[in-house]
Write a structure and sequence with these properties.
Radius of gyration: 19 Å
Structural class: alpha+beta
Number of helices: 6
Order of helices and strands: HHEHHEEHH
Helix content: 40-55%
Distance between the termini: 53 Å
Strand order of the largest sheet: 1-3-2
Largest sheet: 3 strands, antiparallel
Shape: globular
Strand content: 5-15%
Number of strands: 3
């Protein structure tokens, strides 16, 4: 007797329902992974320092990316009530949990860079 096997068919699957898709939705964008990497490397970082580190990023793009990362609970924003205003960013525990993925990407890049 032949045993019935259930094979997965791509037509029955939905990428948007996968963990891969969810993770990608959090870090997707031209600069989000770069911002996360900078916070991983340097700990607590101020806005202007991030902007200098990520050459070519506009004020608006950095601001929007940081707001999205904060809304997704990957980054913590701390504002100090002083003049001029001082704002610092750091990884949250949730953001830190992404670091093994970024580390693996860095290792792969170093190994495969030509």
């Amino acid at each position: 007797m032949m045993k019935k096997t259930t094979e997965r068919c791509i037509g029955d699957e939905k990428l948007c329902e996968t963990g891969f898709s969810y993770t990608l939705s959090l870090i997707n964008g031209k600069y989000k992974m770069t911002i996360l990497y900078a916070l991983m490397e340097f700990g607590v970082v101020r806005f202007n320092a991030l902007q200098r580190y990520i050459k070519g990023i506009s004020f608006k793009t950095l601001s929007l990316s940081l707001k999205e990362l904060e809304a997704d609970k990957l980054v913590i924003r701390t504002e100090y009530p002083q003049i001029p205003p001082k704002v610092e960013y750091r990884l949250s525990a949730r953001g830190k949990s992404l670091m093994p993925i970024l580390d693996a990407m860095c290792a792969w890049g170093e190994k495969n860079r030509m």
